[in-house]
Amino acid sequence: MTIDESINFIYDSAQWGMIPSHMHQPLKDWIENGWMPGSFLQAILEHDIYGAVFKADSQNIERIAAWVQFICWYIPAGCHGSLEKVKEWNRIGGLRGMEKSDATVI
């Protein structure tokens, strides 16, 4: 499976309605390119629920549980879970960077 096929599979499988629409592109930028997101999404990706609650806007605060489910069910395991994993995903450059470096972090 090519990287584009993998990305399309991830995106097509995800239930995007679970999370606010203004967060879709930042999350896609994170998955594909490892671009550091804003403080709320970074906290979610690091599994820092306390930080996420304090950094959430009014739409995200109402969907904290949905965010946890979405992250665990629909995005690659290598791009979330701890501060270290987030830093490494950023360093690699997301799925596109993995393609270039032959890394296997998923």
Description:
The chain is built from 8 helices and no strands. Helix 2 packs parallel to helix 8, helix 3 packs antiparallel against helix 4 (49-55) and helix 7 packs across helix 8 (94-101). It starts with a helix and ends in a 5-residue tail after the last helix. It has one domain (21-101). It is an all-alpha fold. The mean pLDDT is 94.
Summary of the model, kept short:
With 106 residues, the protein is mainly α. It has one domain.
Defining traits:
globular; mainly alpha; 8 helices; 106 residues
Largest sheet: none
End-to-end C-alpha gap: 14 Å
Mean pLDDT: 94
Give the percentage of residues in beta strands: under 5%
- Structural shape: globular
Rg over C-alpha atoms, rounded to the nearest angstrom: 13 Å
Contiguous uncertain segments of 5+ residues: none
Number of helices, counting only DSSP H or I runs of 4 residues or more? 8
Order of helices and strands: HHHHHHHH
Compute the number of structural domains: 1
Structural class based on helices, strands and sheet pairing = mainly alpha
How many strands? 0
Assembly context of the chains: single chain
Helix content: 55-70%
Write the layout of secondary structure elements.
Layout: H1 3-13, H2 24-33, H3 39-45, H4 49-55, H5 58-61, H6 64-74, H7 83-92, H8 94-101
Helix pairs in contact: 2-8, 3-4, 7-8
